[in-house]
Amino acid sequence: MTPQTGPDSVVAALATSARAALGAAGVALADIAAAGLSSPGPLDHRTGVILTTQNIAGFVDAHVPIAARLAADLGGLPVFLDRDTVMAAIGEGTIGAAKGARDFVYITVSTGVGGAIVSGGRMVRGATNTAGELGHFPVGFDRDVRCRCGSYGCVEAYAAGRNLAEAYGVADASIVYAKAAAGDARATLLIGRAEAALANLAVGIVNALNPERIVVGGSVAEHEPAHVLEPMRRAIAERAFKVPAAAVSVVPSALGADVSIVGAALAARDRAGGKGQWFL
Ligand SMILES: [Zn+2]
């Protein structure tokens, strides 16, 4: 669990966790070249500063220099920070489901919905490093479907596990899927809207970006592929532009629940070795 008592305790918990992992692996800190740190954004991956995150106390608009702070706690070990979904895309692009692809999109459908875009062999960063936040692509006109970002009608507001659970009034989205499978009308309506939101996002991605692969990860996608990947595939086949539709495949994450952690390790290795230009 992430401590909710401010940056000091988060840095301390990260350092403790890193030392425990080294101990379990029987590796000395002195033998490690670098560490990767995966975090929600917005953040600055070059300076290692988390600008703000909504869900961790003490990080809202705080500009926390987390990489430098953690590096100091780990005896000067270089620490490389990036957004969790960017780390996931680095992992999938390097050794996973998008290996060899120069144009792909990573999407996570989990507690929230997020993503990262690789175009022409480069990570798309945008002017302020928030490019790829696909969960906040607006797909609905209903102002009552509010999103945490302050807008309405975002993909996340319909399709994220947390939003589905809240809309139905239960603790976990898996209950909503189970209710829908059992024929419950309200659960079926909510799941149908989630599918429609993901379908619209998929068609928009294909038409706007022309990727060769869309890699879909996250716990909801992993457990409910028939309600996540399938509606995306059907929508692309039915109504995306024909040429890009024929060029794209929608595939599950190859790295599973650890995708961002694996990606962070690969990102740290490549940045420390000067090979990270494609994603920086
Ligand atoms: Zn939003």
User: Which sequence of SSEs, written as H and E, runs from N to C?
Assistant: HEEEHEHEEEHHHHEHHHEH
Overall pLDDT level:
96
Shape: globular
Query: What summary fits the major beta sheet?
Result: 5 strands, mixed
Descriptive report:
With 280 residues, the chain is α/β, with parallel strands linked by helices. It is built from eleven helices and nine strands. The strands form three sheets. It has a five-stranded mixed beta sheet, with helices on both faces. The protein has a two-stranded parallel ribbon with strand order 1-4. It has a two-stranded antiparallel sheet with strand order 2-3. The mean pLDDT is 96. The structure holds zinc ion. Zinc ion binds at residues 136, 147, 149, 151, 154, 156.
Briefly say what this structure is.
With 280 residues, this protein is of the alpha/beta class. The chain is built from 11 helices and 9 strands. It is 45% helix and 14% strand.
Write the layout of secondary structure elements.
Elements (H helix, E strand, L loop, with lengths): L6 H19 L9 E5 L3 E2 L4 E2 L15 H8 L5 E5 H12 L8 E6 L3 E7 L2 E2 L31 H5 L1 H8 L4 H9 L3 H25 L3 E5 L1 H5 L1 H15 L2 H6 L1 E4 L6 H14 L8
Parallel strand pairs: 1-4, 5-8, 8-9
Antiparallel strand pairs: 2-3, 5-6, 6-7
Helix pairs in contact: 1-2, 3-11, 5-6, 6-7, 7-9
Bound molecules: zinc ion.
The site of zinc ion (ZN) has 6 residues, from loops.
